[in-house]
Design brief:
27 helices, 6-stranded antiparallel sheet, alpha+beta, Arc Repressor Mutant, subunit A
């Protein structure tokens, strides 16, 4: 089996798609990694800042609550200096202090001291200052004096750890009568040892770092770190206070720290968190295996996708190459790039496309005739669909339209060019569009006039000019004219009226123009209206059930409104039924006439109308189908006639048109649509094939063969034969004889 070398263009496609993907993928991966770190850092910083804010708010609220307790105590008369100095009231004072202590869970003990007294009061009782210092505090004797000094100099509420009176317990001190005036006592509260720890221990979460709380003097109140290496020098932290932003970056010992701070306006305390920034990258790096797996997976998916897309993009080229190789056996690669090799084939394709466009343009007239015929038959939806699908350039856009019909004799019709006649007619009427169509079933030339107005005087002038033009071609001609209607939907109605007017003029041998409006003019009411009977006749002939039903309804309405004797009305009903029977017989439609005869016994006009409408719908469907079949059969007969008579010496387009009672222009258009050749080209091809057959299968002289296929001038035929085949008839016969001997 022969190994197939991969196409260079295909490989180029594959590598190009992979490269196109890889570059953006790597850039996006780096951007994604950087944004992940940045986003994680921002979220972490915002989260820690938020947690610091929660701690700040909690401390502020606790200090506010403790301040309220101090204020209540300072104004409580039961705890006044006078009341506690009297032994009888001291138990009540101690009970009152116990209540205040119980109101707040963070207070471990509450003490009241007046400077002028040596006693200290608490929820557990009262004692002397010496006893308090010795047994209730953790102070050494050397530090007791400093503590007393601090108590005596308290001028405003404050929370501090500096006293160390109770070890690591924070102390809140509230001066009695706080303010610029000298206080006369102090309330100090021993708070829970975990007061700060409970709040700041959870701030860091899973991150390594440190938390600091500074008071209004920028002294450290509390610190917490989950790694001793992360505790920074206090002076370094204080340097960051000058930064206005709540989030800043600080570099210490070549380590970058993210500093987050929150300041309390109530206490002037500052809350700070310091986190090494390297851990943000480490957090993302912890997912490296997972991310690596995702990247590898995406690379594989992308690679397969790139290959798939490349092959899919290359597939049309490969398919085109396969088609070209299959259709064009002479196709060869002109370069290593298949696209260059396809250039010639594409150029050839465009040439063929232009040829098809030319053929379509040649078929346009016949398609236009089909469209106009549909309008005349009332098939408006089908006509609109045909026009939209084939983009016909027909402009029936004016407000009003009317139809007139005429006919020509076989001799005149076979020589006339209907397109030239239509062009000449268009010059007779300004501000209007004129279209003509040859109805081969009815042997009529039909014209549709689309104008801006329905001026009957202008219509009459135009028709008089037209009949003069027509008399130059056909001295004896009848013209039937329908009425004006608005919109394309009513063109078929005007056509029925024009056909009725034409039949009326022809039946009375009134050459010239017959207007349907003249037939409709007021007339004696002794018998059925002539215009309704004519409209009924023509609508039946055209298989138009819509207008036929309207005519029947109008006739029965006339019978109903114009009262006649029973016998006269019965005869009129017979006239309607006889008209229908006559039309059916003329058209040659096989129907059960017993349905009509049965109607003779019906006395009710309503019942008669219903039965006639039912019969009309049935018969019009049959007539319409018959007319379509006749048209198709006529078209089949045309091609068969050509194949049967192309060898006749007098065979011509004009003679054939006369045989079928058609115009030469219509016949020429139809042959071109069916065979994609002109009449002359088609006849030549048939004669050429017949000559080839006789040259191969008979021993007749070439002159006789040429004469047998309809040619008299043998030398002229031989030249045309050589131009088509590349050989003379004699050379062709010799070549075929040699081939037969070899076989």
């Amino acid at each position: 089996m022969k190994n197939k070398t991969p196409s260079r263009l295909k490989l180029t496609y594959i590598f190009s798609y992979i490269l196109i993907f890889m570059i953006p993928f790597l850039v996006i991966s780096l951007i994604f990694y950087y944004n992940s770190v940045k986003s994680l850092r921002e979220e972490t910083e915002l989260s820690h800042t938020h947690n610091l804010g929660i701690v700040k708010n909690t401390v502020d609220n606790h200090i506010k609550e403790l301040g309220k307790i101090g204020a209540l105590i300072s104004y409580d008369y039961k705890l006044s200096q006078y009341m506690v100095s009297i032994n009888e009231f001291r138990p009540e004072a101690i009970s009152e202090l116990n209540k205040y202590k119980g109101n707040n869970s963070i207070i471990d003990e509450l003490y009241l001291h007046y400077y002028e007294q040596n006693d200290i009061f608490s929820a557990d009782g009262y004692m002397s200052m010496d006893t308090f210092l010795t047994y209730k505090t953790d102070l050494q004797e050397s530090n007791q004096h400093a503590f007393l000094t601090t108590l005596n100099e308290v001028n405003y509420p404050q929370l501090t750890l500096q006293t160390k009176a109770f070890g690591n317990h924070p102390v809140f001190m509230y001066p009695l009568l706080p303010g610029p005036a000298k206080s006369h006592g102090v309330v100090f509260m021993k708070l829970s040892e975990t007061f700060f720890a409970d709040m700041i221990n959870t701030i860091l979460g899973s991150y390594q770092g440190a938390v600091y709380i500074f008071d209004q003097n920028d002294d450290v109140i509390a610190t917490y770190s989950n790694n001793a290496d992360n505790l920074l020098d206090i002076s370094v932290i204080k340097d960051s206070f000058t930064n206005v932003s709540n989030i800043s970056e600080l570099k210490v010992n070549k380590v970058n720290y993210s500093i987050m701070k929150v300041h309390s306006d109530n206490t002037n305390w500052t809350y700070v968190t310091a986190l090494p920034t390297i851990q943000f990258f480490n957090k993302v790096y912890q997912f490296k295996n997972f991310m690596l797996l995702i990247v590898v997976f995406m690379l594989l998916i992308a690679s397969f996708s790139a290959i798939y897309l490349a092959l899919r993009q290359y597939y049309p080229i490969e398919k085109m190459l396969a088609i070209v190789k299959e259709r064009d056996k002479t196709f060869q690669f002109t370069s290593k790039n298949e696209l260059d090799s396809l250039r010639i084939s594409i150029e050839t394709m465009y040439e063929k496309h232009d040829n098809l466009q030319t053929q379509f343009a040649n078929q346009q007239p016949l398609i236009r005739d089909q469209y106009l015929t549909m309008l005349l038959q009332g098939q408006n939806k089908a006509a609109e669909k045909l026009s939209d699908s084939l983009h016909l350039n027909l402009q029936l856009v004016e407000n009003y339209s009317f139809v007139f019909v005429t006919s020509l004799s076989k001799e005149r019709l076979s020589h006339i060019d209907t397109e030239e006649l239509e062009a000449a007619t268009s010059e007779l009427l300004a501000n209007a569009t004129i279209y003509s169509v040859e109805l081969i079933n009815d042997k009529l030339m039909t014209y549709i006039i689309n104008s801006q107005s329905k001026d009957t005087s202008e219509q009459q002038v135009f028709l008089n000019l037209f009949i003069r033009l027509l008399h130059n071609i056909e001295p004896t001609a009848w013209i039937g004219v329908g009425e004006f209607y608005s919109g394309n939907e009513q063109i078929h109605r005007s056509f029925i009226e024009a056909s009725a007017a034409y039949e009326h003029g022809k039946s009375y041998e009134e050459q010239g123009i017959s207007y349907f409006r003249d037939i409709k003019a007021p007339q004696e009411t002794l018998w059925l209206p002539k215009d309704l009977l004519l409209t009924l006749t023509q609508s039946y002939k055209q298989g138009n059930a819509e207008i036929a039903n309207e005519s029947i309804k109008s006739l029965t309405a006339w019978l109903r409104d114009n009262h006649r004797s029973i016998h006269l009305a019965k005869h009129m009903q017979y006239d309607i039924m006889n008209t229908i029977i006559k039309i059916v017989n003329e058209i040659g439609v096989n129907v059960n006439l017993e349905k009509i005869y049965y109607l003779q016994n019906i006395t009710s006009l309503e019942q008669l109308e219903d039965n006639l409408l039912t019969f009309t719908n049935e018969i019009c469907t049959v007539i319409s189908s018959k007319k379509e079949n006749q048209k198709k059969q006529l078209q089949v007969d045309i091609l068969k006639h050509i194949k049967d008579h192309f060898i006749d010496h007098d065979f011509s387009l004009e003679n054939m048109a006369q045989s079928f009672n058609l115009s030469a222009s219509y016949l020429s258009r139809y042959i071109k649509e069916e065979t994609h050749m002109t009449f002359s080209q088609y006849v030549w091809e048939l004669r050429l094939e017949e000559v080839k057959r006789q040259l191969t299968e008979t021993d007749l002289p070439i002159k006789n063969i040429v004469f047998n296929v309809g040619y008299i001038d043998a030398p002229n035929f031989s030249r045309k034969f050589k131009n088509s085949v590349g050989l003379t008839p004699g050379q062709y016969r010799s070549l075929c004889v040699k081939d037969l001997k070899r076989i």
